[in-house]
């Protein structure tokens, strides 16, 4: 079974995807990390995320970089959103994600375009969302725990800018697949959101 989990920043899609992978004993890929690895490589080399050739040159990053906690910073997230708009960057990362999705036994992937581009035939597609204010509060808390000193207003402005860039780009924009089930986590605890996600997977995987 392939489970595709998409949604905007800090909606809770990673938390849900990890929990589903555990529940069903499936491997999980956080595809945002691939774009973050490209972005971190570009920034480290003093190159410009907005220049497509600079970002493409960074697509050969070593696998070990995916475990680096510095990929989780806000600065890298923002640059990831910039590099991910380049069609050649998306093309360079496509096969790796498709191979992961199509491994025998299935997989859980989370990102922005899993249900629409990477695994359009996935048996189960979830689109996880929450209001921008709630997502900003969650991300703010996370950044504070990392020791970052940033205001809630700034985090909210960044979330809105990222939503805009991710949904307006021409290649593989973030959007809900027509056959995706929406899971709004705004007023759900983490446990309740996971329970709801498992219930949706059960419903959908028995449908067809
Ligand atoms: N339903 C929820 N209620 C409260 N906090 C949540 C919920 N889901 C996730 N979080 C927290 O919000 C932050 C972002 O969640 P995450 O799953 O990483 O989002 P995404 O992968 O969509 O960016 C994390 O700190 C996570 O623990
Ligand atoms: N499948 C994906 C996953 C991430 N991305 C991009 O990568 C950026 C970082 O993704 P992420 O999932 O790590 O970010 P968060 O949602 O955790 O903040 C996003 O803003 C997207 O621009 C993408 O374009 N396609």
From TrEMBL:
The reaction(s) catalysed by this protein are: dCMP + ATP = dCDP + ADP; CMP + ATP = CDP + ADP
Q: Which Pfam families match?
A: Cytidylate_kin
Looking at its record, which EC class is this enzyme?
transferase
Give the highest taxon in the source lineage. Answer: Bacteria
Q: Where does the signal sequence lie?
A: none
The record places domain Cytidylate kinase at 3-202
Keywords for the protein's UniProt record, in alphabetical order:
ATP-binding, Cytoplasm, Kinase, Nucleotide-binding, Transferase
Q: What is its main location?
A: cytoplasm
User: Which residues participate in ATP binding?
Assistant: 7-15
Q: Known InterPro entries for this protein?
A: Cytidylate_kin, Cytidylate_kinase_dom, P-loop_NTPase
EC number from the UniProt entry:
2.7.4.25
**Molecular function, one GO term:** kinase activity
UniProt subcellular location:
Cytoplasm
Belongs to which family? Belongs to the cytidylate kinase family. Type 1 subfamily.
Q: Name the chain's protein.
A: Cytidylate kinase
Q: Which gene encodes it?
A: cmk
């Amino acid at each position: 079974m392939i489970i595709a989990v998409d949604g905007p920043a800090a909606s809770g899609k990673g938390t849900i995807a990890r929990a589903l992978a555990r529940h069903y004993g499936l491997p999980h890929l956080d595809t945002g990390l691939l774009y973050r690895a490209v972005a971190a490589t570009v920034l480290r080399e003093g190159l410009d995320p907005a220049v497509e050739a600079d970002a493409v040159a960074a697509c050969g990053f070593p696998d070990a970089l995916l475990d680096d906690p510095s990929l989780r910073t806000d600065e890298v997230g923002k640059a990831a959103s910039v590099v991910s708009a380049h069609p050649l960057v998306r093309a360079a990362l496509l096969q790796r994600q498709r191979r992961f999705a199509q491994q025998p036994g299935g997989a859980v992937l989370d990102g922005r375009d899993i249900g629409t581009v990477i695994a359009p035939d996935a048996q189960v597609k979830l689109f996880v969302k929450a209001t921008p204010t709630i997502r900003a509060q969650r991300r703010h808390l996370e950044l504070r725990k990392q020791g970052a000193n940033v205001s809630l207003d700034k985090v909210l402005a960044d979330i809105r800018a990222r939503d805009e860039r991710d949904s307006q780009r021409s290649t593989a924009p973030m959007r809900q697949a027509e056959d995706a089930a929406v899971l709004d986590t705004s007023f759900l605890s983490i446990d309740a959101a996971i329970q709801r996600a498992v219930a949706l997977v059960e419903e959908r995987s028995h449908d067809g």
